[in-house]
Amino acid sequence: MNDRNRKAKLNKKSMVMIGAAFLIVLAVAALMYYMDHRSTGTSEGSGKKVYTIDGEECYKKQNIETYLFLGVDAAGDSKNTKQKKNQSVQCDSVILLVIDRVNKNFAILPLDRDAMVSLEIPDEDGNILGENTMQLALAYAYGDGKEQSCELAEDAVSGLLHDQRIDGYVSLSMDAIGTVNHLVGGVDVTVTDDFAGESGLASGQTVHLSDAQAETFVRGRKSVGDGTNENRMNRQQTYIEALYPVVIDHAKQDNNFVSNARKKLDKYMVTNMTDSDFSKIIEALSSDKKINVSDIKYSRTINKDTGYAEVEYDEGSLESVIKKLFYEPVEEWPDDSDEE
């Protein structure tokens, strides 16, 4: 064998040895990574991270989906909105839908627009200027009136709920209320407030809302009842409770209802969700069980410098709601050590 062939065989053998060594290193690294992540933050080798929520050890629920719905205090076409930072357009209605795909249930959690949240403030180019504490409604105002505003509101809600993931958002301008009401042919509500003017909404009566009445019922505040946002939130919740079964009924009767509704609402809407996402939500609302979530306790004060209301959620009450929606106690899970 000449020197050239001998060197070629040696080089080939060396490459095979180097390749084998490289594969062994990768395998060891992968095993170390697996063992490290299998044991970090776990209890009794279960492989699941344990969180202490509301004083109780819990696991995070699997297959939870969360969707944020914003009612925006704006008129006209949302698609062509141009807003500079910190203008007056705010989100007046903030509602979180939480769907539990494993346990086949869902919850609707309204959040107060006056809830104080911590938020990173961007400039017009998206660069973070700093962090500030403000009303949840104002988070939307620091964006562009479209996607950026929705994302800021999403970040604020996520932070308020101890960094829970939010899977999608929808914002609708208040001009869309009449269109929504028209799509389902109106809904029945019992009026519990005194409305000024000739709205036809008299306290104590059950009314099948016209499109104009629906907007007054959901949107009115200063001249209605005690004029507080808390009062308006209660009416919004009443409307939603009346609306969603009617929407479900329409969707069951008409396979094209969701896509047609999306088209009619499109100019009022900003969302990162698809028709498929909306259809899956409608399916869950029509088939799964609705669970009730306790109201979050809070204190409402008026800031003497700004004159605006500020809501501070009670941390214990907030944690209790977070635990119910997103976590399950450790003892409710099967003990892996019993498995053979």
Explain what you see.
The chain has 340 residues and is α+β, with helices and mostly antiparallel strands. It has nine helices and 15 strands. It has a six-stranded mixed beta sheet, sandwiched between helices. The chain has a three-stranded antiparallel beta sheet with strand order 1-2-15, covered by helices on one side. A two-stranded antiparallel ribbon has the order 6-7. Helix 4 crosses helix 5. It is globular and about 60 Å long.
Brief overview, please?
With 340 residues, the protein is of the alpha+beta class.
Amount of beta strand: 15-25%
Average per-residue pLDDT, rounded, comes to 81
How far apart lie the N and C ends?
A: 59 Å
Number of strands: 15
Approximate shape: globular
Output the structural class. alpha+beta
How many distinct helices?
Answer: 9
**Cross-sheet strand order for the largest sheet:** 11-8-3-4-5-12
Low-confidence stretches: 2-45
Radius of gyration: 27 Å
Helical residue percent band: 25-40%
Largest sheet: 6 strands, mixed
Spell out the helices and strands N to C: HEEEEEEEHHEHEEHHHEHEEEHE
Key structural traits:
single chain, 340 residues, 3-stranded antiparallel sheet, 39% helix
SSE layout and pairings?
Elements: H1 3-39, E1 51-53, E2 56-60, E3 64-72, E4 91-100, E5 105-111, E6 116-122, E7 128-135, H2 136-141, H3 147-160, E8 168-173, H4 176-184, E9 188-190, E10 206-208, H5 211-219, H6 229-253, H7 257-265, E11 269-271, H8 275-287, E12 289-290, E13 298-302, E14 309-313, H9 315-326, E15 327-329
Parallel strand pairs: 3-8, 5-12
Antiparallel strand pairs: 1-2, 2-15, 3-4, 4-5, 6-7, 8-11, 9-10, 13-14
